[in-house]
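To assess whether ligand presence alters the predicted conformation, the chain was also submitted together with deoxycytidine diphosphate. Input:
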Amino acid sequence: MRKITVAVDGPSGSGKSSVSKETARRLGAAYLDTGAMYRAVTWHALDAGTDLSDAEAVAAAVKAADLFISTDPDVERITIHGTDVTEAIREPFVSEAVSAVATNLAARAELVARQRAIIAAHERIVAEGRDITTVVAPDADARILLTASEEARLRRRGLQLGGTQSDAELQAQVLVRDAKDSTVVDFHVAADGVATVDSSEMDFEQTVTAVLEAIKAQAD
Ligand SMILES: Nc1ncnc2c1ncn2[C@@H]1O[C@H](COP(=O)(O)OP(=O)(O)O)[C@@H](O)[C@H]1O
Ligand SMILES: Nc1ccn([C@H]2C[C@H](O)[C@@H](COP(=O)(O)OP(=O)(O)O)O2)c(=O)n1
């Protein structure tokens, strides 16, 4: 099988994780959820009582993090210092705190280096996040920005969390977080050479098909 690296970026709730994972399965490729890495180090910092407003303490915690993430699209598993946090990192309290790590430039540099090493270790991989097309893997064979309207993204995240969140809570976890994260990386506008797939009016299957077509157009 031919070597291929696919980079996917986009805002919260655009469908990056679910669509990239299914795309990886169809390509027989590995899958890397870089957001899960930011979430895991945030979970650990909170658990350890690290002051998230202390940039040096956050950076030190990220550098020391013993982090494992599965790259099998059929096995969702992430551990930090031996603790399985696969479920815990999806909790709203992590979503609301994660930008403190994502906007810390030293923490980003550490995670970017680890993400590049994971990508380099795989012949075929789909990696998704906020800065994969621009910083982590700008030389990827195919680069895609997956977008969706604010309304679609809020609705999807609300459904995903089982209708447990109020409108204000969803806004904090999706829109406020994106606004904070956008101060360090631009994931709303496609960089040169990056194809945009707008999933607002598409269902899941149509989005996967559109992403596979965009990959074919770039990588062939
Ligand atoms: N094109 C789509 N149409 C409808 N629902 C979608 C679509 N893409 C993703 N979803 C659903 O929206 C939710 C959020 O998607 P997710 O992949 O977690 O987004 P992200 O990783 O960008 O935050 C999931 O429940 C997913 O199944
Ligand atoms: N490559 C990445 C991936 C995620 N992040 C940050 C930004 C997000 O707030 C968090 C969590 O990302 P995640 O992809 O899990 O978030 P969503 O599922 O899109 O809501 O990590 C980042 O800064 N750079």
